[in-house]
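Anyone up for a design puzzle?
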């Protein structure tokens, strides 16, 4: 799919208080936007092209819907219907970003996965709140991608975020716990902390067994 994306200075009047939309990739001040959906902004052609390649061309139409649907609609029923549609589109962006990230990890393209996962985390927070157990698998995928890039400090941070949710949520499914411990084990192995890794993998085995053979 060829997108109509051209060099566009973002009009400061388009956003309140003269603020600028940040680049979706790096958070820097943007100088470009996707002209098709007009909802996603970039600091540079490099970041625009990269985002189009790894994710945006698959979700541009969904962003366009989200952008267009922010308008006043008379009638509570119609507003509820529109809000339901918005949730469906956000869920589709989340699912697409997550499954593309899975593919990137499988193909050993951790940089692409990191970019796809940052979008997945953004929409997971919007849809489920900041402390939902459903965000744990996305943080776990981030751990894998960051470890593969040798960014151990950031991987540890992602694992801590997942762990914080895990410890504060009583009702976490065993499969999600198993996924967490698998990635904790992977991180510990790469940090050469073999004793901790053994504990992680033991926990992984315990929770995957519990998931498939509930008592
Ligand atoms: Zn950027
Ligand atoms: Zn777009």
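Challenge accepted. My sequence:
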């Amino acid at each position: 799919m060829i997108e109509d994306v051209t060099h566009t200075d973002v009009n400061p009047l388009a956003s309140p208080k003269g603020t600028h939309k940040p680049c979706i990739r790096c958070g820097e001040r943007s100088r470009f936007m996707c002209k098709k959906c007009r909802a996603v902004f970039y600091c540079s052609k490099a970041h625009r092209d990269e985002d189009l390649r790894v994710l945006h061309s698959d979700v541009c139409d969904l962003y366009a819907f989200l952008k267009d649907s922010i308008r006043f609609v008379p009638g509570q029923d119609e507003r509820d219907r529109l809000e339901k549609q918005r949730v469906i589109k956000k869920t589709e962006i989340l699912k697409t970003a997550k499954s593309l990230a899975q593919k990137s990890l499988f193909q050993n393209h951790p940089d692409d996965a990191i970019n796809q996962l940052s979008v997945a985390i953004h929409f997971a927070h919007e849809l489920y709140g900041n402390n939902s157990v459903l965000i744990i698998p996305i943080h776990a995928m981030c751990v894998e991608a960051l470890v593969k890039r040798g960014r151990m400090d950031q991987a540890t941070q992602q694992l801590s975020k997942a762990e914080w949710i895990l410890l504060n949520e009583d009702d976490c499914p065993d499969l999600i716990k198993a996924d967490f411990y698998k990635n904790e084990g992977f991180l510990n192995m790469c940090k050469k902390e073999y004793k901790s890794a053994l504990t992680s993998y033991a926990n992984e085995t315990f929770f995957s067994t519990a998931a498939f053979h509930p008592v």
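A detail worth pointing out: Residues 1-92 form one domain.
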